[in-house]
Design a protein that fits this description.
The protein is an alpha+beta fold and about 220 residues long. The chain is about 40% helix and about 25% strand. It folds into 2 domains: about 15-130, Endonuclease I-creI, CATH 3.10.28.10; about 135-225, Roll (Endonuclease I-creI). The chain has helices spanning about 25-35, 55-70, 90-100, 115-120, 125-135, 165-175, 195-205, 210-225, and strands at about 1-5, 20, 40, 45-50, 75-80, 85-90, 140-145, 150-160, 180-185, 190. The longest helix is centred in the first third of the chain and has 15 residues, at about 55-70.
Length: about 220
């Protein structure tokens, strides 16, 4: 990592001293998080919006990663009108860095949300980026169905995004890792239905969000019981 000196900016205070990280698995995961629940809507701040209850522990994980990547601690606030917490990285230097490496300003969908080329160029980066995407825009859920009068409880995994190109990219990365994706919902959702595929996903990609890992853990306990 390299330290950036503060720079004079017209009518603004000096730019913060921050770290600009080299390309890494951790940075690729952060980009996945930003592509999922993140946004850049002005020149000086990037934000990540999460569920204040379900993703509270995950917010702490993201804050720690921001400290490791950029050398500063982002702010955390809760919206008064909803169960949403917002992690904000306030730095023009960081915003410029994120944009120069493939994140989009403004409306991500209208501007063509896709995985940046530097992430696609390396398998470990692709896996980390999908983990960040899934931990924000994905879910692991339990679904019940009855066959011949007997109730079965199975797991399902879903990733949702309105960028059809991004959905195709994630599906291709699943296939690369011998996981069979099912694209549904007018091309905006990927489902994994087979338990072997879900276990393989968790083994290869993992999760940094207890909201997802706890569902799998509870399901395993219920099967044993």
């Amino acid at each position: 990592m390299s330290k950036i000196s503060s720079l004079n900016y017209p009518k603004k205070s000096h730019r913060k001293l921050v770290l600009l990280p080299k390309k890494s698995v951790l940075l690729a995961e952060f980009f996945g998080i930003m592509m999922g629940d993140g946004g850049i809507n002005n020149p000086w701040q990037s934000n990540i919006s999460l569920n204040a209850i379900k993703d509270r522990n995950y917010a702490d994980y993201i804050i720690k990663n921001c400290q490791n990547l950029f050398g500063i601690t982002p702010s955390l606030r809760k919206r008064k009108t909803s169960q949403t917490i917002i992690i904000s990285l306030s730095s023009m230097t960081i915003v410029d860095f994120l944009v120069s490496n493939g994140l989009l300003r403004g409306n991500k969908l209208k501007n063509g949300l896709v995985i940046p080329e530097w992430i696609l160029s390396k398998k470990s980066y692709r896996i980390a980026c999908v983990r960040g995407l899934m931990d924000t825009d994905g879910s692991l859920f339990v679904h019940n169905h009855i066959v011949s009068g007997k109730k079965y409880t199975n797991l399902g995994l879903c990733f949702s995004n309105s960028s059809l190109d991004l959905i195709e990219q994630v599906a291709d990365i699943f296939k690369e890792n011998k996981i069979k994706p099912h694209i549904e919902g007018w091309g905006k959702k990927i489902y994994l239905y087979k338990i072997d595929d879900i276990i393989r996903y968790l083994k290869i990609f993992g999760t940094s969000n207890i909201r997802i890992s706890s569902v799998y853990g509870n399901w395993k306990i219920a099967r044993v019981v």
